[in-house]
């Protein structure tokens, strides 16, 4: 199922929520994205997974672990699909913190921050 979603996105057929769970109260939002510092590489995330800057993962305040989201850089229209596996502090002014690989795909590593649109795609059943 996950492979189908990613292939559909790459081929440009659009996207929609494929979750069988109760719909998230957050389907599409706009906010500021940052990316993890290199010192976090190899550390344990809030979900228990080991963080890797080479993966396509992210931290979010509210979305449940395993949720797949489409992140679009509003400055250059580049996109990436990432999986939520960590938490941002509730007081953070940022909406999402991305792995370095995801930040590179969105072309904002030099600036450090960018305005993004976040669209919920899929959520794993727990």
Walk me through what this model shows.
- The radius of gyration is 14 Å and the shape is globular.
- It has helices at 2-11, 100-105; strands spanning 28-35, 57-60, 68-73, 79-87, 96-98, 114-122.
- The protein is built from 2 helices and 6 strands.
- The protein starts with a helix and ends with a strand.
- Mean pLDDT is 80; it is low at 3-26.
- By secondary structure, the protein is α/β, with parallel strands linked by helices.
- 13% of the residues lie in helices and 31% in strands.
- The protein has a single domain (2-122), classed as RlpA-like domain (Barwin-like endoglucanases), CATH 2.40.40.10.
- The longest helix is centred in the first third of the chain and has 10 residues, at 2-11.
Features:
126 residues, 13% helix, 2 helices, alpha/beta, Barwin-like endoglucanases, globular
Secondary structure layout:
Blueprint: H1 2-11, E1 28-35, E2 57-60, E3 68-73, E4 79-87, E5 96-98, H2 100-105, E6 114-122
Parallel strand pairs: 1-5, 2-4
Antiparallel strand pairs: 1-6, 2-5, 3-4, 3-6
What would you say about this model in short?
With 126 residues, the protein is of the alpha/beta class.
CATH superfamily heading: RlpA-like domain
Mean pLDDT: 80
CATH class: Mainly Beta
CATH architecture: Beta Barrel
Distance between the termini: 16 Å
Overall number of strands: 6
**Domain unit count:** 1
Order of helices and strands: HEEEEEHE
Lateral arrangement of strands in the main beta sheet: 1-5-2-4-3-6
What class would the helix/strand composition place it in? alpha/beta
Residue stretches low in confidence (pLDDT < 50, at least 5 long) are 3-26
Helix fraction, binned, reads: 10-25%
Principal-axis shape: globular
Largest sheet: 6 strands, mixed, barrel
What is the beta-strand fraction? 25-35%
Number of H/I helices: 2
C-alpha Rg (nearest Å): 14 Å
CATH names the topology as: Barwin-like endoglucanases
């Amino acid at each position: 199922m996950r492979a189908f979603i990613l292939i559909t996105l790459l081929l440009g057929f659009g996207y929609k929520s494929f979750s069988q769970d109760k719909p998230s109260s957050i389907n599409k939002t706009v906010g500021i994205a940052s990316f993890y510092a290199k010192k976090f590489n190899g550390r344990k995330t809030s979900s228990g997974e080991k963080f890797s800057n080479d993966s396509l993962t992210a931290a979010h305040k509210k979305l449940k672990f395993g949720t797949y989201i489409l992140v679009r850089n509003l400055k250059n229209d580049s996109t990436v699909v990432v999986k939520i596996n960590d938490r941002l502090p509730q007081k953070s002014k940022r909406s999402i913190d991305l792995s370095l690989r995801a930040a590179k795909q969105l072309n904002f590593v030099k600036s450090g921050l960018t305005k993004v649109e976040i669209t919920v795609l899929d959520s794993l059943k727990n």
